[in-house]
Task: structure prediction
Amino acid sequence: MSQPYRMETQNLSVYYGKHPGVRGVSLPVHDRRVTALIGPSGCGKTTFLRALNRMHDLTPGVRVEGRVLLDGEDVYAPGVDPVVVRRRVGMVFQRPTPFPTMSIFENVVAGLRLVGVRDRRVLGQAAERALRMAALWDEVKDRLHAPAVDLSGGQQQRLSIARALAVEPEVLLMDEPTSALDPISTQAIEDLLTELKNSVTIVIVTHNMQQAARVSDYTAFFLDGEMVEFDATDRLFTNPADPRTEAYITGRFG
Amino acid sequence: MPDWIYRRLGDRLFAALVVFLALGVVAAALLVALVLYQGSALAFRTFGFFGFLTSQAWDAVRGQFGAWPPLAGTLITASAALLLAFFPALAAAIYVVEYAPRWLKEPVAYLIDLLAALPSVVYGLWGLFVLVPPVRDGLERPLFTWAAVHAPALVPLLGPPTGIGLLSATLVLALMIVPYASSLARDALALVPQSQREAMFALGATRWEVVRRVVIPYARAGIFSGVVLALARALGETMAVTMLIGNAVNLPYTVFGPAATMASLIANEFTEADTDLHLSALIAVGFVLLLLSLLTNLVAGWMLRRLARGEGRR
Amino acid sequence: MNRTLRRRYLRDRVMVGLVGLGTAAVLVPLFFILYYVLVQGIGALDLAFFTRPPAPPGETGGGMLPAIAGSLVVDTLALLMAAVFGVAAGVLLAEYPDHPLNPPLRLVVDVMAGLPAILMGLVAFALVVRPMGHFSGLSGSVALALLMIPIVTRATEGVLKLVPWELTEAGLALGLPRWRVIVNLVLPAARGGILTGLMLSLARGAGEAAPLLFTAFGNPYLTANPLEPMDTLPLKLYVYAISPYPDWHRQAWGAALLLAAAIMAASYLARRAFRR
Result:
């Protein structure tokens, strides 16, 4: 515990009514690294991810126990505003979610508009920066004011990433961001991740083990709502400590 | 029974029966237009179509008939009622879809739907005995007295504060279309995918910001087509208006005083019409009402089709 | 940053308040309507209300028996007509999707659904009352049926399209002809949804008075013959409400409660049928 983590969960549990979806997970998230969460579907990895930026607050009947530290402070502590938490911890979803009534430009700056940024120059610069980070700038710079829904699926997902990056979050949560995309778009987003981790801390949920091995520095393996193992990615994939991890990564179940 | 009768003939007979009955439905709709058009012919021949539409006279005794007074009454009451109903209806829809706790959503939605199904005569009865006295004594008379002393110029505009007239009819009409408009707006809001809301929340938005910037824009075509459908309903609403508006076809109308709409005029005079011209004029008013509601329904349908054809291509 | 956030929260609170206020502005008057119908109506629903013909104008007492019976006859006939034509049109739209009649049929159903009810009365007057030479319950049923058909057609089409195509294929694979598949497999599978449509159309038609003013017309004497003029509850409610007699006002509230209860029952049945 000598090294301060960007984010850390301590004994985190998430209940749907009485049923626990995630049980007692303690996970460190290293600063400016990619942490991957893997496991068979229904293992609780998405549920866990959504606890990190308090998305569960929006679903009635879901209860979160334990602590989620962001720079050492519990985001579930009384008096902490979920709106502020979500601004610092951004999220990209499984399917691209462009706002259909907005242009590409307005999609990217949607988060900045919320905090009252009106200056066209500031907005323009922020949009360009975010779109460049998301490796979308060259494809859309000539049609920033076209409807966002005109973009292809892969472009829409990179737009969602640009939109999340535009508010300059400290941590970016990604929930299977490539599962709805074709191989070429997937490749583009995986390349992007290695670039992004220079400036942002990333937690990514994926059911694709190869993807986790390719893009992440640390990997956590989830099974039945519990975290079975956490380690540096190369170690977890070459020399897992738990037989269940080994069974999963060698494809014997799930 | 030989097999081919059972199969080929059976299939043909069944299809023929279905087509025959469906043709009946199409024929019925054509008959609606045809009957109203034919019935109006005498009035249109006598006064001319545009002459009938723009003439201000409606005088059964002298045989002068013009559709302008009831047309104006219809447009005034329907648009004023829509204006009154729009924001509360939208607010109630937003409340049910976005804010209400889960246990409250169903009952509130059910209550609103139930009231949308309540008959017009029931609203009229309620308006007559429950709404009119306070409107007359608490609103119209004080205003009238005040105007008589302080602003005599307003008095002819306000009209007699009897409680029966334009104002009461409009208020009840607004009450009647609120549940309908709200129910349609609720359907439109409920179609907004949860992922849209979550994406905005994840950017650090408050709930209102999610509603204002994502939910309402996404649903706007559905909301507006609902508004137009509510307008269409207000235009043709008959019984409650007939019971409350006072049925006077003389222009100019006043805020408190009696007036007439196309529907209330037909309801009120049809069984008393004793000349062919009077009857034809009433059917011609029905024909104008038909055109007006066709127009509004076409606009609503066009909006909905734009919604279906890829929302947000603009 | 912090000041912006405070302003945003202030706006959030204000808008919650406005939404709540708007909702209250909708629900409170509507609640009052139900309250008055219940309270005023319940006192009027005595035995005489259901079993007696109306008293002469100005006299106390009497009941709504002719109007209740008339409503039953007129609404039943209308429902039958709407069911036959409406379901058939729905079957054509859903089961014969390529039929050339479908585009005009769909247009017509959409248009008819949005027309004011009073226009249906004018049409039934011209088509039935004039040729017969007098008002009749039957002409009222025709007017109501015109109103109800689009509702039935839409519901039927919608629910038939939900029936899985595999069911049709399975039936055809068994060697059943198409019409037997539709009558014996598809329609029974869609029974709940069709019933829902019928109940909704009944709830709509049973409360209408406007198209009956110059078709069914009204009749103070008890009759079960739909070729004669007939009273119905909404018609009687209207006549009593605008009359000068307090006892008739009392009975009008009774009729309002009875109508509201019937419509609630119909929409409750509609929901239950749909869930099944």
